[in-house]
Amino acid sequence: MNTAETGQSAMNQARCEVDDGTAFWDKWGWLVAGVWIIFLIFPVLDLLLEDYSLPTRIIGLILVAVFAGVYLRAYSVYSRVVGEGGTTDVRAHVYFLILWAIVLAGLPVIGLTVIGMFPFLTSYSAFLLTKRYTIATYSVVAVLSFLLPIIYGEFVDLLFLIGLNLVLMVVYAITVAAITRSVTSEKIRADYLVVAEQERMARDVHDGIGHSLTALNLKAQLALRLMDAGKYTQARSELEQLSELAVTALDSVRTTVHGLSRQDLTAELAELHQACTDNTLDFTVLGLVDEIPVAWRSHVAWILREAVTNVLRHAHAGSVVIRLGAHGVSIDDDGDGIQGGESGHGIRGMQERARLFGANCTVGASKLGGTTVQVTFTAGNGDS
């Protein structure tokens, strides 16, 4: 794997929190628009209660319905750009022009009722379009909000709607600024996690793969010397050990690379269940994935894979139990327990991974008789 591929894979892993946020906007961002649909109550009530002819009333209600549909459709397509400076996509501007056309077409039909539709134009420009369009829209709407009531001689009667438009423009601007700052902060954090992930991989390579390759080289040199000396039986023994070391090195590579690409906790649990079943190991999960905060699930998935893989390789266990909760996760087995006093690179990797999102990871004796891996979500790790 080259540097570019490593960086991209790490970015995919580290940006899981940002991706979760993006997925939210893609799926539910239209609700931002939906909340403001309530303000269409002003033109609707005006059309229903004021003295309009039936054809005018019907045309007006149709215009309002089409306006709402186009507005919601645009948000459902482009809500992903909220907080990212807006979109320059042509279709987004076409939707915007349609909204303006409906408002202007409605002016001679329903008169100043269209002022109740101005907040949707300013909302659209502030959340979905670039700053240039936002400034232009704000300026036009502000002028029209004062000019039209003056022209129609109803300035005093429409003071509430005029003030509402101005207040909402300020609210939109502040909201967009807050969302933009949050998105920027998450991107900076993601960049930091990429660097941290690359450092983790470098440590894994140095501690695990580097050590294995050094041992491979020494074994190969020793085997060559034994063959030169005619000691073929001893040379064969060294070559067999060399083969075992090569398998260990390959496992280290797989573990390192796999750790960069895991993201889906639900899918990870399904794969681990299948792996344990294939190896006649009872696999039990207590708790629900939904109890794990979304931002930490990819990290938890990586730790679970490492822990269960260790059980499969070394523990000689008959069962493994995973507990999921809002305050942490644990992995227990009934195997041989920890052998030796030193932590291997797998345990260190789990602990480093936990530190990436502010959690604590400890390894010790399990009540089941084998080993337990405990990951505790600390009170402040939501900000890490």
Provide structural commentary.
The structure is a single chain. The chain has 384 residues and is α+β, with helices and mostly antiparallel strands. It has helices at residues 3-14, 16-28, 30-36, 41-49, 54-78, 90-110, 118-128, 131-152, 159-228, 232-261, 265-278, 297-315, 345-356, and strands at residues 282-286, 319-325, 328-333, 359-365, 371-377. Strands 1-2-3-5-4 form a five-stranded mixed beta sheet. β4 (359-365) and β5 form a beta hairpin.
How are helices and strands ordered from N to C?
Answer: HHHHHHHHHHHEHEEHEE
Strand order of the largest sheet: 1-2-3-5-4
Q: What is the count of helical runs? A: 13
Helical coverage, percent range: 55-70%
Give the structure's gist in a few sentences:
It is built from 13 helices and 5 strands. It is an alpha+beta fold and 384 residues long. A hairpin with a 5-residue loop joins strand 4 (359-365) and strand 5 (371-377).
What characteristics describe this protein?
alpha+beta, 69% helix, 8% strand, elongated, disordered N terminus
